[in-house]
Every structure is written in C-alpha cells, then in structure tokens.
Design goal:
heterodimer, A: 316 residues, mainly alpha, B: 332 residues, alpha/beta, 8-stranded mixed β-sheet, 4-stranded antiparallel β-sheet, globular
Chain lengths: 316, 332
C-alpha cells in the first residue's frame, strides 16, 4: 500500500512540473503584454524597455522560467506587476471560495446521485429508471453556462431570492448565512453536472454488482434490500464512481470559472480570467500552478479512497 | 427416513422468461425431506438441480421467473411468499452453501463481518457477542487462527478456506435445512473431500437436514440417505441411495454412475462419457428427454413422456418405459 502510494506520488510531481512548463510558455504566447496595461498604449519605447528590464521580461523565456521556478521552490510566487499585491495573497483570498463551492456541490451530488442510482439499479428498465435515464441525459447535455442563466432567471428573478455577486459575497467565517445564500446557486449548478455523471456511472456499476453471486448470498442471509444495497453493493460498485469524481472535481476546480464569472464570485477561476485579460503573468502562473497541484492532489486523494473501498486494488 | 417431514416439495415447476422463449428449468419435482435427513440431488449440468435448490429456498431472481407448485418448509409455504416472508426463513430456517467461493463472498467486506451480519441483523446479537460467535464459527469450520482470519478479506484466503467461510455464514443462523449447491465444484480435488466431510460433520453435529446438489455420484454415495436423479428439469429416478446405486432402473442413472470416477477402478481407466449432449430446455423432445441419448429408446420413448412409477423397493421410483433389469445395475 505504502509503495503503491509512493509510486503514484512520484508520477504526480512529474506531472506538476510538466504542467508548470506548459503554463509558462502558453501565457507568453497569449496576445497582450503587461507593459501596455501598466503604461498605456502611448508611452515611449524607452520607457517600455525600462519596464521590461525592471520586470525581467527582457530575458529569454527559458531563463524567466527558471527564475520563477527557483522562487516558487522557495515558496515565493512573486508579486503582481499590475496590482502590486503578492500573488499568494490573491490566491489565498480566492481559493477558499473554490473549495467551498466544490465541497458543497459534491456533498449535494453524492447525496442525490447515490439514492437515485440505487432506485434505478433495483429495478432496471422500470418507469423510474427510464425517466431518470432520460432526465440525466438531458441535464448532461446542457452546458453549465446555460444552466446558470436559467437558474438565475428562475431563482433570482422569478422567485426573487436574494442572489449572489461580488458585492454580496462574504466569507464563510464572517457570516455563514449570507455566505451560503451566495454559494447556493453556483453549488447547485455545479452539482447538477456532477449528479448526472455520478448517477449514470454508479447505476450501471450497481446493476452489474447486483448480478453477482455474493449479492445472492447476502440475500440468502435474510437481510433487507436496503442493507444489501448500502452494505454489500455500494462499495464494490464505487470504484468507477470515485475515479470519475476525482477527475470531475479536478475539472470543477479548473473549469468552475464559467460559473464564477457569470455569477461574479471572486474565486480562483474568476481571478484567473481577469488576470489573463490584464496579462498579469505572475498571477496567471501562480493560479495555474495551484490549480494543477489541486487537481493532482484531488486525484491522488481519490485514488487513495479507491484503495480503501476495494482492498484488492492496492495489491499489485 | 424420519417420520417428521421438514420439507415437502410438490410439483415444483420453475419457468424462466428468456429472450429465446419460456424455459422450463424445473418441471414438476416432488419429494419429501425428513428432519436430520440428507438428500442428494444429482444430474448433469443443466439438469435443473441448481435452479431446484434455489427454488426450494425461494431465492430465484425476482424478475423473469415463474414458480408454481408447493414448497413447504416447516409448514410455511415458500412458493409465492413475499420477499419479506422469505427473509424470515432465510438464514434462520434454511441456508445455502454456494457453488463457487471465488464469487460468493463479497470481495470488499472482511470475512468476519460477513458472518457477523447474520448474527447481528438476524439474531440481534451485539457487536462483541457477534464477533466472539463468528470466531467460534470460523473455528468450527476448521479455519486456523480464526481470530486473525476474522479481519481478513476473501482475496487473501485460499479457495478451500473461502468455502469454509461460506459454510460458516450458512451455519451462523443455525438453520434446520442446509442446501449445498455443488459445494465443491470450484475447489481442488484434495480440498473437495475436506469440505464434504466438514458438511457431513456439521450436519450430524447440529442435527440439520441437508440437500447436497452435485453432478458427481461419488460425492453423495456415502453422505446421503436418499437420492433424486434429475434430467432436463424432471426427476427421473429417486429412492434410497443404496437402491439407486445397486438397483437403479433408469438408463440415465446408470450412465451417470458409469461416468463417475471410482477409486476401485484400475488407474488410467477411461471414464465412460454419456453420449450426446444435454437437451436444449427451450426445445425438448415430445417424449422422454433422455431418449435421443439412450441406447434402449423405442418409438414409444420418443413420442410419450414416461412418468415416475414405483419399483420393487418402497420409495424407489423411476420414469422409464424400458427399465433396466435389476441385476444389470449392480455397481462395483
């Protein structure tokens, strides 16, 4: 088990390094440059050159990467050219919002998807199963940015429920009621996407598991169907579910920006989109690095959960 | 035979609804089983013996299966009973030892917990008592270091050990009837005898009745008092084990006997195979299902289905128009 995890860890460190190089080069390929943002378009070439030298942007990109990486390894993500705020301060303010959004949406997703998948798998092809299958397929094909708009329309405008926005966002620690009010909508939007995927993955695995001989043996003990589903069928059916959840949650961390942007929630994704617009290289690099590490850590955690759920997996 | 009837099976028919049509896996099977008695159900693969054992227990799949006839266990009707009613019987009155211990144990639940469950859920024991009893059961079925093995996952146990765990699960609720469905098929030959002897021993020790389902007559010869021989879902011969072995009348029974390896045979004796293939249950011949493979079949066998009729010995029945002469059936 320890060896399995250690081997995974080494692979993951390698992946982070590759991503950091990729992110660094990609941002330099983007149109726009920080000097224009800072000095405006009318400034003299001399001033621009001086600013470039000051920011270290006149050096070869490969050199810039190593300087940046060296600082990163010393725990220093640098300070934004534009806002003069340390990158880490910006990330620390935004990250909890992403984490909260993900945790809320995932709790919601599992709480809905598991019972739904069970009621489908109990009687495959029943009217309930067919309905859920069709419904989940429909939801799966609606992109998040459309869901957001529809939900905002229904919840915020038609139902006149106070909704979210930068102005109304307050940290969880400050006022949890207001915080949850503003987080409810984005969490639900993200949850809808997750529920449909989890429901479909778990349903098919549960159906396969319920055919197993050990389920017949469990049945022959005279225990309730509820117990068979929760104690005997769920765990062996969760391997694909957990793998999917790991990938999906990573995707939410990296891809939640659409929802954040549309709802003005100042999470990492929102900050990232703004920073790209400002050519704020260090902030973009910092966020990409943190997000990629986050995605990898999440996958690592889920890989570990899988070995807990199915003790046979860590054996090889 | 004991006078006390524990299990009364009458005209049990199990029909599966398959995409290819209706498949009658068990067709009008009747027999009685007394308390403390052991009965062998023998037949080739596909003869309906496994389906019969599941039907007796009421453990057939919930959908796509129709069961008719009557199975009374201790006076309780199983056929047509609700799942809730059957749950009361399962574990406590009737339990099953499954065929393949590689697939019948939950791979992600510790073996001790799998035994525990019966004790806690069905017998209402608390955690500590259930654990102690589960370890006791593991010891009883011959698992060394039972307290350590309690926390083991099935994949870390050998096939023989797993089957012992399956037996322990079956025994946990102290059932009166144990159904052993080909309990040694998935095991090494050397382990097979150990498991059979274990079943034999616990059956005697706990005073249970047992139905031993097998394709191997060698398995039931010394371990059961009566036999039911099945072919294509029907009982074709039944009687005391002694009568079926020594005075069988049905050619199929003889073919089964001859295909079973015997220790007394000289080594490298070629086993007699039953010619032909088991019949397609979706498309059974009009007459005797065994007729196409039978050396004695006549036109009557091919057009008319023989019913069970009494032989000379009490309780010995066979379904054949051209029964073998008694003298011809003497086994070695």
């Amino acid at each position: 088990m320890a060896r399995y995890l250690a081997r995974r860890l080494v692979t993951l460190v390698g992946i982070v390094l590759v991503i950091s190089v990729g992110a660094f080069y990609l941002i330099h390929l983007l149109p726009g440059d920080p000097a224009t943002v800072i000095l405006g378009t009318g400034d003299s070439p001399q001033n621009r050159a001086r600013l470039y030298a000051q920011l270290g942007l006149n050096r070869p990109v490969i050199e810039q990467y190593f300087v940046w990486m060296k600082n990163v390894l010393h725990g220093n993500l640098g300070t934004s050219f534009i806002s003069q705020v340390p990158v880490w301060t910006t990330i620390r303010a935004a990250l909890p919002i992403d984490l909260e959004m993900i945790v809320l949406s995932q709790i919601l997703s599992f709480a809905v998807a598991i019972p739904l998948a069970m009621s489908s798998a109990k009687r495959p092809d029943s009217w309930l199963d067919r309905f859920l299958g069709a419904f989940s397929f429909t939801m799966l094909s609606i992109p998040a940015f459309i869901l957001v708009v529809v939900l905002v329309l229904v919840v915020a405008i038609k139902l006149a429920v106070p909704h979210t926005g930068v102005s109304s966002y307050v940290p969880l620690t400050q006022d949890w009621v207001t915080n949850l009010e503003s987080m409810a909508l984005p969490s639900v939007v993200l949850a809808i996407g997750s529920v449909t995927v989890y429901y479909r993955v778990l349903r098919s695995d549960l159906i396969a598991t319920l055919q197993q001989e050990y389920i017949t043996l469990a049945r022959s003990k005279g225990i309730s169907q509820r117990r068979i589903l929760w104690r005997h069928a769920l765990r062996p059916s969760s391997v694909a579910l957990l793998g999917t959840a790991g990938v999906n949650i990573g995707g939410l961390l990296a891809g939640g920006f659409i929802v954040q942007y549309l709802l003005d929630i100042p999470g990492l994704g929102y900050t990232l989109v703004n920073s790209i617009g400002l050519s704020d290289y260090l902030v973009v690099q910092g966020i990409v690095l943190v997000v990629s590490i986050g995605v990898i850590v999440i996958n690592f955690v889920f890989d570990f959960l899988i070995t807990l759920v199915d003790p046979r997996i860590a054996r090889e | 035979m004991s006078d006390e009837t524990l299990l009364r099976v009458r005209g049990v028919t199990t029909v599966f609804d398959t995409p290819q049509g209706r498949l009658t896996a068990v067709d009008g099977v009747s027999f009685d089983l007394g308390a403390h008695e052991s009965l062998g159900v023998v037949g080739e693969s596909g003869s309906g013996k496994t389906v019969l054992s599941r039907t007796i227990m009421g453990l057939q799949p919930r959908r796509g299966v129709a069961v008719t006839g009557s199975v009374r266990l201790n006076g309780t009707e199983v056929v047509g009973a609700s799942e809730e009613a059957k749950r009361e019987l399962w574990g406590r009155q009737v339990a099953m030892v499954f065929q393949d211990p590689m697939t019948s144990l939950n791979p992600v639940v510790k073996v001790g917990k799998q035994i525990d469950e019966v004790l806690r859920v069905r017998l209402g024991m608390d955690r500590a008592a259930a654990r102690a009893r589960a370890i006791e059961l593991l010891e009883m079925v011959g698992i060394p270091a039972a307290a350590t093995r309690y926390g083991a996952y099935p994949h870390s146990l050998s096939g023989g050990m797993r089957q012992r765990v399956v037996v322990a699960i079956a025994l946990a609720g102290s059932p009166q009837l144990l159904l052993a469905d080909e309990p040694t098929t998935g095991l090494d030959v050397t382990i097979q005898a150990q498991i059979l002897n274990l079943l034999d021993e616990v059956q005697g020790r706990l005073g249970m009745s047992m139905i031993l389902v097998t394709h191997d007559l060698g398995v039931v010869a010394t371990r059961t008092s009566r036999l039911v021989v099945m072919y294509a879902g029907r009982v074709v011969e039944t009687g005391t084990t002694r009568d079926v072995f020594a005075r069988h009348r049905m050619p199929y029974t003889r073919a089964l006997l001859e295909s079973s390896p015997k220790i007394s045979n000289p080594s490298h004796t070629r086993l007699a195979a039953i010619p032909g293939r088991p019949p397609n249950l979706l498309d059974l011949p009009a007459g005797c299902a065994f007729a196409p493979r039978c050396a004695y079949a006549t036109d009557r066998c091919r057009s008319e289905r023989p019913v069970l009729e009494p032989a000379d010995e009490p309780g010995h029945l066979f379904a054949c128009f051209n029964p073998l002469p008694v003298a011809a059936g003497g086994p070695s």
